[in-house]
Specification:
The complex is a heterodimer of chains A (215) and B (300).
Chain A (H helix, E strand, L loop, with lengths): L6 H10 L2 E7 L4 E5 L6 E2 L13 E7 L2 E6 L4 E4 L9 E2 L4 E8 L2 H12 L1 E4 L4 E5 L1 H10 L5 E2 L4 E7 L2 E6 L5 E6 L6 E2 L4 E6 L4 H14 L2
Antiparallel strand pairs in A: 1-8, 2-4, 2-7, 3-6, 4-5, 6-8, 9-16, 10-12, 10-15, 11-14, 12-13, 14-16
Helix pairs in contact in A: 2-4
Chain B lengths: L2 H11 L9 H10 L7 E4 L5 H14 L9 E4 L20 E8 L4 H4 L2 H15 L5 E3 L3 E4 L2 E12 L6 E9 L17 H5 L5 H27 L3 H5 L4 H9 L6 E5 L8 E8 L5 E4 L5 E4 L3 E4 L1
Parallel strand pairs in B: 1-2
Antiparallel strand pairs in B: 2-3, 3-7, 4-5, 5-6, 6-7, 8-9, 8-12, 9-10, 10-11
Helix pairs in contact in B: 1-7, 2-7, 5-7, 5-9
The chains are: A alpha+beta (215), B alpha+beta (300).
């Protein structure tokens, strides 16, 4: 974790370019047909459980199986590789970029993700806190919970099989929780953000600064 | 006849019960599942078989020994049975209560199907005794709208080795026909539907043989997939999913879904398929489709 943070530089970067650029690549080889075009607005999944899929970006056909690929974020289509339309493409081919406008909450989140220690989902599954951790959170709040490597912090539930998830990372308190119990989390997405106790004032300073200065 | 003898006899009969498969393939599948029952411990009473299995793993690892995959602990009665979300599980004499411990050596996409394999094994064992049990996703074993068997699958990480163990706890209401008042409308026993008592050792032995088959099937399917066997690819869906679909009445049903559906139902939808990962494919009222990899359903 960085002790010194140049707030002015970080904030001016976000002011000059308040977007995140999400590269869209093909998940496998196949014949590609675009279903959107340059500068078209797109939306990500929505609904109470994020069950409504995002805007259709393109279809990928392989051996007569057509896979629709949808946007995972809100934004605008940029750098669309029009020449690939109707062509056979390899897996991992970059086909477009989605320019996603960042909100204040997302900017705080992006900065914190650089300074907190992230604990990532080992598999695509549903997660919830271990019973002991949950009862301590209910009693004292998550930011009073210290964890260290080897602690059973979470339970991963996949097809009704519960697996304990042991924390690996630097010791600290649970500062941010990025999952909703019972909702599916993709592999390698952050589950919790950990902050060493002595760095907590710095984190609070970051949040206060962005909140006060970002319109 | 005890459960061990019943198991030996049932497993020897198993290839003959799979007429759609060449005998050598059936025997190959059973060889993969032969670890099931690598030691059968039969107790008259226990608090929870799951806890005992955890103790056995911890003891073996603390003594510096490798834990052998496949042991089974059976108890005639459990005094501290628990279901998911700390729900109470009644396990009086007359029922079949056991836990099977496996060392997880499957790749994640195949290991995800352990709970389905356990459900299929239960369903097949009960059907073998003449009762037309069905499976409700993920692995509730039902008959006449009542739950005959429950399965609790948990993973334990070895405290010394870091090895991943899969503990499959199975409870079948066989001859135990009296239930707590809150369960009378939702639980049933084989004896109630069959109109007679069943031989517990025979039901237990048959269940272990079905577990050997279905756990073997997971390993066999993984081996075939890793070898790039085109035959298996052409046989999609996964053989375990096909076996599960053959016993289930879930697809096509309108359901209420929730992670803990009794306490926090999420939404209602129609089940349109089970995908190759065992996930539930649901169509919502607005026509959108979503997939669930965990949780519970209630039929509407």
């Amino acid at each position: 974790m960085h002790d010194e943070i140049d707030f002015d530089q970080i904030l001016s970067q976000y002011r000059a370019d308040p977007y995140e650029y999400i590269e869209v690549t093909t998940p496998h080889a196949g014949r590609l047909v675009f279903k959107t075009s340059e500068e078209k607005p797109v939306s990500g999944p929505s609904g109470e459980w994020q069950h409504l899929p995002g805007t259709l970006l393109y279809e990928l056909e392989r051996e007569r199986n057509v896979k629709p690929v949808r946007s995972v974020v809100n934004g605008v289509v940029a750098n669309l590789e029009r020449a690939l339309d109707g062509q056979f493409v390899e897996a991992g081919e970059k086909v477009m970029i989605i320019r996603h406008p960042l909100k204040k909450r997302e900017i705080i989140d992006r900065i914190l993700r650089n300074v907190l220690s992230m604990f990532l989902a080992p598999e695509r599954a549903k997660y919830f806190f271990a019973l002991d951790i949950q009862s301590r959170i209910d009693k004292h709040g998550q930011r009073s919970i210290s964890i260290k490597p080897g602690d059973e912090v979470l339970t991963m539930s996949l097809m009704k099989r519960d697996t304990p998830v042991l924390y690996q990372g630097e010791p600290g308190i649970i500062h941010s929780v990025y999952f909703t119990p019972g909702a599916t989390v993709d592999q390698d997405q952050p589950l919790i953000g950990i902050c060493p106790e002595d760095k907590l004032p710095l984190i609070q300073k970051i949040i206060a600064r962005v909140k006060s200065e970002w319109e | 006849m005890g459960i061990i003898e019943a198991y030996r006899r049932a497993v020897s009969e198993e290839p003959g019960l799979r007429p759609g498969l060449p005998r050598e393939t059936a025997e190959e599948i059973l060889r993969y599942g032969a670890v099931v029952g690598a030691g059968i411990e039969h107790l008259s009473k226990a608090a929870r078989c799951m806890d005992l299995a955890r103790e056995r793993i911890s003891q073996a690892e603390a003594a510096g020994r490798s834990f052998v995959s496949g042991p089974v602990i059976v108890a005639d009665e459990l005094t501290g049975g628990k279901g998911r979300f700390s729900r109470q599980w009644y396990a009086p004499p007359g029922g079949l209560w056991l836990v099977l411990t496996l060392v997880n050596i499957l790749l994640p996409e195949h290991a995800a199907l352990y709970p389905l394999a356990a459900g299929v094994a239960c369903g097949e064992a009960i059907r073998h005794h003449g009762l037309p049990a069905t499976l409700k996703w993920v692995n509730d074993v039902m008959l006449g709208g009542k739950k005959l068997a429950g399965i609790l699958t948990e993973t334990m990480i070895g405290p010394v080795s870091g090895e991943e163990y899969v503990l499959i706890g199975i409870g079948i209401n066989v001859n135990n026909t009296s239930f707590a008042p809150e369960l009378r409308h939702s639980a049933g026993a084989m004896a109630q539907f069959g109109g007679r008592d069943f031989d517990l050792a025979e039901v237990g032995g048959r269940l272990l043989a079905k577990l050997a088959w279905n756990i073997g099937l997971l390993h066999w399917a993984e081996a075939k997939a890793l070898a790039g066997d085109r035959g298996l690819e052409e046989e999609m869906p996964h053989p375990m999913i096909r076996a599960w679909l053959g016993l289930s009445d879930t697809v096509g049903r309108k359901v209420r879904f929730g992670f803990n559906v009794a306490e926090r139902p999420h939404y209602c939808a129609k089940v349109v398929a089970i995908d190759n990962l065992g996930q539930l494919v649901l169509r919502l009222a607005d026509g959108q489709e979503t997939r669930e990899s965990g949780g519970e359903i209630v039929y509407l």
